[in-house]
Amino acid sequence: MRNRLAHLIQRDGRALFLPIDHGYFQGPTHKLEQPGKTIAPLLPYADAIMLTRGILRSCIDPLITKPIILRVSGGTSIIGEDLSHEGITTSVKEAIRLNAAAVSLSIFVGSKYEHESLMNLSRLVNECEEYGIPVMAVTAVGRELEKREARYLALCCRIAAELGARVVKTYYCSEGFEKVVQGCPVPIVIAGGPKVESELEVFGWVYDALQKGAIGVNLGRNIWQHDYPVAMIRAIRAIIHENATPQEAYKLFNELKAEKSKIEK
Asked: Pick from 225, 216, 160: which is nearest to 28 by CA?
């Protein structure tokens, strides 16, 4: 368990996870139509990648040794009735065979299927603990984005930790995020949510989340949907692992963007 967690969380106690599991309910997401091609230039700067078994098998070269966080929940789609009606889709035996450093699944606190999703987490933890595999719980909110406030997120994160999650992925909130972290006894990484227009805005909330106790990020769309994805991930990595300020990260981003633009011309 400790060894697998050490693959994910670096010696400085920080982590940059790159999720590309969106297709399990969204289908061929914009700029993720060819996942392997999308993430190839980003892999050197990520500490781990989060994805499903299907994409791992079909799109990732097995010679790549980047740690894998295997998404093992699903069973719903963006056009279905309720995103929270998920089940476990992948066995722990297969996670071991695929050499996953961790597994992840979503929980939907406050939803119609709250109980089912929390029992999914409990059963997964029960089995994974036998083999020393960390479980990362994702505090999903489905379409109800207004739930991204501190009191709700603190509830979700604490429940996930109480049920045995070793890491929790949750959303950042500008007010009271430190209370979310303080109430959760296991490491928290923040999700990015929808792509935003301002790079400085992303750098700002990544930095703020770290100051308030998060250990890192699990960002996808704000990186690989960007016109300059490598510049974005390198700037975010500078915040996480080099303690760069948002302004320093923005300067680095613009320098890398200018270099890329010059090469393309």
From this structure: 225
Domain count, the chain: 1
Measured N-to-C along each axis, helices 246-264 and 199-211 cross at an angle, to the nearest 10 degrees, of: 140
User: What's the pTM value of the predicted model, to 2 decimals?
Assistant: 0.95
Please give the average per-residue pLDDT across 203-224, as a whole number: 96
pLDDT digits (tens, 9 = 90+) for 246-265: 999 999 999 999 998 888 76
At residue 153, the 3 state secondary structure works out as helix
**CATH number for the domain harbouring residue 161:** 3.20.20.70
d(CA 196, CA 238): 19
What is the span of the domain harbouring residue 103? 2-201+213-225
Q: Provide the 3-class DSSP secondary structure of residue 135.
A: strand
169 is known as an active-site residue: yes
Q: Is residue 152 part of a domain?
A: yes
- Active-site hit among 31, 147, 169, 257: 169
Is residue 74 in some structural domain? yes
